[in-house]
Amino acid sequence: MSKKIGPLDVFNILPKTNCGKCGEDTCFAFAAKVADRKLDLEQCTPLYEEAQYEKNRGKLEVLLRPAVREIRLRSKDDEVRIGGKTVVYRHEFRYSNPTAIAISVSDTMPEDFMLSKVKKASEWEYRYIGMDLSLDLIAIRSTSNDPTKFRECVEKVSDVTHMPLVLCSFSPEVVEHGLKALKGQSPLIYAANQENWKEMSKLAKNYECPIVVSAPNDLDQLRFLTDSLMKEGIENIVLDPGTMPDEGLRDTLNNFTMLRRSAISLKDDLSGFPLLGTPISTWCEEDEEPEIKAWKESYISSMLISRYADILIINSIEMWSILPIVIWRTNIYTDPVKPVTVEPGLRTFGKPDENSPVLYTTNFALTFYTVQEDVKDLDCYMLVVDTEGISVESAVAGGKLTADKVNDTIKETGIEDMVTHRKIVSPGLAARISGETEMVSGWDVLVGPKDSGGVKNFLDKKFYQET
Amino acid sequence: MSFKDIPVDVGVIYEGERIRWRETYVEMGGPRIEDKFELVLSRDIDEIEDGKIEVIGPDIKDVEAGTSLPYGLYIEVAGKDVEKDLEGVIERRLHDYCNFIQGLMHINQRYDIHLRLSQASVRKGLDSFKLIGKVIMRLYKTDMPLIEKIQITFITDLEEVKKRRAEAIEVYDARDARARGMKDSEADVFYGCSLCQSFAPSHVCTITPQRYANCGAISWFDGRAAARIDPKGPIFAVEKGECLDDWRGEYSGVNEMSKEKTLGEVDRVWLYTAFGYPHTSCGCFEAIAFYIPEVDGLGVVDRDFKGKTVNGLSFSTLADTTAGGTQVDGFHGLSIEYMRSPKLLQVDGGWNRIVWLPKKVKERVEEFIPDELKNKIPTEEAVANLDELKQYLEDAQHPVVDRWKAALEEAPEEVEAIEEAPGGSPFAPVSSISTTVGGYKFTLENVRIHADRVRIKKVEK
Amino acid sequence: MKNNKKKMNPFDASLFNMLKNMKEIEIEDVDFRIDRLDFTLPTLVVNPQIPRQVAPIGKPLEELTYEFVPPVNTYRGEVTEVVLGATKSEGGSRSRAITVGGSKTPPFYSVEGEKPNPPVVVGDVFDMKINLPKPVRSHFGEVLEDPAEWARIYVEKFDVDMIDIELISTDPLLNDTPISESAKVVEDVLQAVDVPIIIGGSGSPEKDGDLLSKMAEVAEGERVLLSSATPDLYEPIAVAAKEHDHAVLSWTSLDINQQKELNRHLLEYIPREKIIIDPTSAALGYGIEYAFTIMERMRLSALWADQEVQMPMAAATSNSWAAREAWRKDPELGPRMLRGPLWETTSALTFLLAGVDIFISLHPAAIRTVKEVAGWLMDQEAEKIPKNWVNLEAV
Predict the structure, then answer these.
(1) Which of B159, B171, B452, C101 has the most C-beta neighbours closer than 10 Å?
(2) Whole-model pTM?
């Protein structure tokens, strides 16, 4: 892996005027965030608006261009970005742009059924660790092959959703009709292949839309198509190496891996584009129950997310099959260096009263969930102390879990009004701060077990007895 | 390891116990008493008797409740692998061991110690220092198998405490002098620590006598002790190998170790610089030295500093770039103790290049800042932004001002592929000359070119 | 200029200072070290048909086509193979011995190499009735109180490769079952099934040492996997493994350094061929990404010749049921009879792609899917039929 781009590399090519238009105090601050891929280069408006900086902008764009290019899809309201990857493994650097999920409808579906599916996809939501998870795109397939019918369908879908669209047909005429209905937007065109790429390229250029090149299980042909389009001046390309279920999974996963590694490790330009997976292909199987097809579609989606897919087209929007995909996507795209946290504050388990035990723990998600499992059947109060997501042991060692912090949490949650006693159970690994916590808070600290599995037993022996 | 013969409980859960005065049976040392100390000395194997515990002066049962005693804890250890350099590390454990005893509280170290024994524990039967001694011995022998013999003397007789305290202070001073005086060139090995690899796969710290670990918790002596005590643990000895560059601090052994531990990510380390091939950081560094291009100097900020530093970036923002085990020019994790080292960032200019640091940090390292620079390095109290910083540095004639002059005189023009690099490392910005004409693009990595002769000629415009 | 051996950056400001007053300078004996050097040689004849290709080193330019060149690495290390179970001739009573591990390349990247041994799926049984989610319970009915019968169903009906008998009732905080009773349970299981087995303790640091030592004795000859050694308790288990020729599951909590340290300790007693790593397989939605990344990193390290992690990996996909999304009855989340098993399956396949070799599982659908998918991924003759999903009607 080559050396990571540092703030200085970026700073040296910026205007260095500290004008502040980007929202940061100094160019250096901006450079640090850009190098860490927390801000877009475009926020430096002088770079894009002033002629004197044209060369600088060019250099920076090349410097910062990720090995896998970033492609943007736009509707009238929203923008979805895909690609933009700089590494193969997430432990090298956090992945950007979570895999976009496109829900498929077709232009021969009964209209109300189709529109209700589109609405369901657009409004789909799941609350998870303080985040609202959602889906991203609608893929409209032309099964009618009728340009007018397709256009009508596209118009109707575009009216009821804020999401950017993927227009799926191998007929340039059909696609063009769809594009006409989306003036000002930037849908993804699926797709250019060996037969139609010349006309499809024209569409991509004229309508300034990103386009998929598709060569099922043929990486050589995929290269040819990509290069042909690039020679036409098209830069916003997405690669479809083909998603084949069952026995085809072997080649599918291999193709995705080869392309991604080629882009990153070999710095191969022609591989350096986002990858499209189409788990919807499990629905092509004639003799299977819909549950089986949805089951396969779901696990193939998750596997492709693990294997570098930047965008997926799927069919089933049933909660049971789509939730695992969305959760895994959220998980794999977290920053591996930043711990996952839960909300600090008060939690209640069972039906506690003014005599019930009070325990505390940290807001590191894993710690919290583990402890939660062990106390959820008890009647008690739990204070979650904000240690910035660090576990008990590390937080004590690193000064993030302190007597003061515990005391602050006690005061902020108002627990003193909810119980008449003043005994709090601390995690065993926080023994070191127990004395100080007592002094600062005025509560008695009972140092509990190291492992929360022993909490119930501990409470039986030490808390209930002595109260 | 059991403590069934001890009348009170012993365990980690008692670590944070505080004993209030009204619960105290006897206090040893503390603010009311001047004469107190704790000392661990290494002896030859035949010089001491294993397991011997002596009390010179009144024992616990000999005094009344509410007494404060002068107190000396004199521990002698011996073993094949025990050496003088490990005394401090071994001594530090006393704080934990004493605290593990139910009803016994221990604060501070060396000649500042303060202990209290609770009435409850004495009632349970903990009425002799000998019992405390037993616990301490057992804990040492279990945790540190390199201690083969241990002998403990508790001293509560005032004269004896005074006498041995004087001896102790000499020992502490000698230790500190040795620790600070020891040079990297004198060390037989360095120590590597991979404790943080869980968070940063391509990070491993190299700990030398003159470069403390980034987390601030491990000195070279600590590393030595740890590697001896737990050879299978995360701290290990690193062969220095050949000294490739004494000034920059490059050692072939360190390069090899780094390459291996980081799976090839980091294969070259310059120990005393923040540029080029700097020592990496995981995420638990105490402070960051960060480059301020506007003044061509380095700022330092520590973890405890809240708010924005002089260039508008906070510690946490700077930490994002510094962490993760990568070699990034100008973002350098370090420990406060390294700031006390004569080798501090010497390649970059050391204190001559440091232009800003928080007041609290400055106070902690003030002693080690060269006198003539003390007033030239502002803190957050003196300057609030880059303009004020520039002005301050100029007014104070900070050495970094000379660098500004040199840069101005040289006036490099549209230098295309070659750009001036702060701190002296060449930049080769990635430039892909896109040709619409057609041609062949060559990409060479990790290039070594040898030229018998290089001629640089000025080209007139 | 004098022949100066000083290491100097030729692009240093001081050099330009010197140039200010001179027209030309010459330096001898110069070494450049450059991370990356790009340059382009434009051609004189402009021919837009020439493919824009980077010439691979050594290949004549005339041979340029659109051939995709797969990236291929070579590796210096490999994962050891561990054998579990022993047949009659080998001193045991299993119908076959199973070999796990042995990977020489990253998981399922065929162009670099094939996985030598198929992954192993294990049926997870307990020595007391526990609160299992309905989707799992529904497959086993009454046998949940009889570990031997439970094991038999896993093997005969659901085709698992191994059984993991978890003696959780021995936990002093649960039933504190005496060790002698557990011996009987293990014997019963060994009688009921003829696949290799894993023997699990309760996780109690006070009791597991004695428990697993005794079980090692009881199962002598069968080459079982003793589950588990942890940083808090490993010595008696390692000793028992050595004495009775078993393997040890080396279990740590999502911490690579802790894992390596534990392995170092174990290696003082037993060879690498007797150790399997369990880094803790956190549930989907509740920490799975930590497990995934640690597994990926360990596998890469192993291939880079880090001997401390060159062991096969195991994952308990049964952990995935800890996620409330897996077991909770909630109409808004869809039918849990599908949702739960899919939760476990998704976890399992995620770990499969990270290089895990052994899957300790609960739900039959997960078991079947893992075996099926692994089979497809390893089948070099597999058919590859692209599907035309664009034209799918009625969907």
Answers:
(1) C101
(2) 0.81
